[in-house]
Amino acid sequence: MLSGMTDREELTWDLFGTASRDLAQAIADDGFEPDLILSIARGGLFVAGSLGYALDVKNLHVMNVEFYTGVDERLDLPVMLPPVPNAVDLTGATVLVADDVADTGATLKLVRDFCADHVAEVRCAVVYEKPRSEVKCEYVWKYTDKWINFPWSVLPPVVKREGQVLDA
């Protein structure tokens, strides 16, 4: 648990709608036209879907990466979970990597590096970026050093399934 940190960043569904639209506008204003959006599951699925609609990009891919196991608790290194996208599907593409937050940046770095040898260009878009992130994203809606309550993960699961999180 975060010691002494009760101040959190609160993202509501309505505010997420604003954030994703603002991100899309920044990407469009920059002239970046991705061939595909690569979502980092799970939080990045929401970002990628909304950006896909706003930027008129229908080609969405998913990478499942496990890193966080709880509030400020993570594995030593992020791990790609199957199915890993086939690099041949990315070859020569202009890729926008979408995630909800660049916290340490380790997950984004893993995905960006995976793409780097195969794609024409890769850029990253996130709702939030923290100062400690080793990846500085091209498109960021807001910078924060707080823990973030996302609308899709703030409530506990309706059911608890065993074996869904890798053990550290």
UniProtKB/TrEMBL annotation:
* Database matches in Pfam families: Pribosyltran
Q: Which domain of life is it from?
A: Bacteria
Name the keywords, alphabetized.
Answer: Glycosyltransferase, Transferase
GO MF term list: glycosyltransferase activity
Residue ranges of domain Phosphoribosyltransferase in the record: 16-154
Is the keyword Oxidoreductase assigned to this protein? Answer: no
- Which PANTHER family does the record associate with it? HYPOXANTHINE PHOSPHORIBOSYLTRANSFERASE, HYPOXANTHINE-GUANINE PHOSPHORIBOSYLTRANSFERASE
Protein's name in the database: Phosphoribosyltransferase domain-containing protein
Lineage, uppermost ranks: Bacteria, Bacillati, Actinomycetota, Actinomycetes, Pseudonocardiales
